[in-house]
Design brief:
globular, Four Helix Bundle (Hemerythrin (Met), subunit A), 63% helix, mainly alpha
């Protein structure tokens, strides 16, 4: 993803959101996984208060977030599997990154719910299992010791979530291959 976590986090703050970049991006991904036809305005309604007329900072923040929306939609539906979670970089402390991953998963589940997926919904088996796993990750609060084992575990969990999102997206909205010329 071309968007930088801190830049998106700052844009959300300027626009008056009560969420961080990880949760906001998770919400977007959850919404898009269920309904690729949503608009950026649908996402904004879930995250942002209505801007005050003439608030140039909020307008610029919405423009930046609109770019995140376009990038994310493109990544989720790209057959190259180039989708990435919007999380703090490796230069941030492990505790902050783990917390952000929990927020991301929480946002993802919220986004799915906003688009009509309810708890206990009749989902494909793999999707239902991933949703349960994401709920567990979202609800996990724990102290993190910084060592190589925990760094590796964090990276593996991020990759599990990333691939899981792609699987959910494919199960709920299969990518349609371009038509072949006969």
């Amino acid at each position: 993803m071309a968007s930088d976590y801190d830049t998106v986090d700052a844009a959300l703050a300027r626009a008056g959101a009560d969420t961080d970049a990880a949760e906001g991006h998770g919400t977007l991904c959850g919404m898009l996984s269920v309904n690729n036809a949503i608009s950026s305005e649908d996402w904004f309604r879930e995250l942002l208060p209505d801007p005050e007329p003439g608030d140039l900072l909020a307008q610029e923040a919405r423009r930046q977030l609109g770019e995140v929306f376009k990038e994310t939609r493109m990544e989720l539906h790209d057959t190259g599997l180039d989708f990435h979670l919007l999380l703090p970089g490796d230069d941030e402390g492990l505790e902050r990154r783990v917390e952000a991953l929990g927020h991301w998963c929480q946002g993802y589940l919220y986004g799915m719910a906003v688009c009509g997926v309810r708890e206990g919904a009749n989902l494909p088996e793999d999707t239902a299992e991933l949703v349960r796993d994401f709920a567990e990750i979202a609800g996990t609060g724990f102290d993190v010791e910084i060592d190589e084992t925990n760094e590796t575990a964090y990276s593996e969990i991020v990759e599990y979530v990333r691939v899981g999102v792609l699987l959910i997206n494919e199960e709920l909205q299969p990518i349609k291959a371009p038509p072949r010329l006969q």
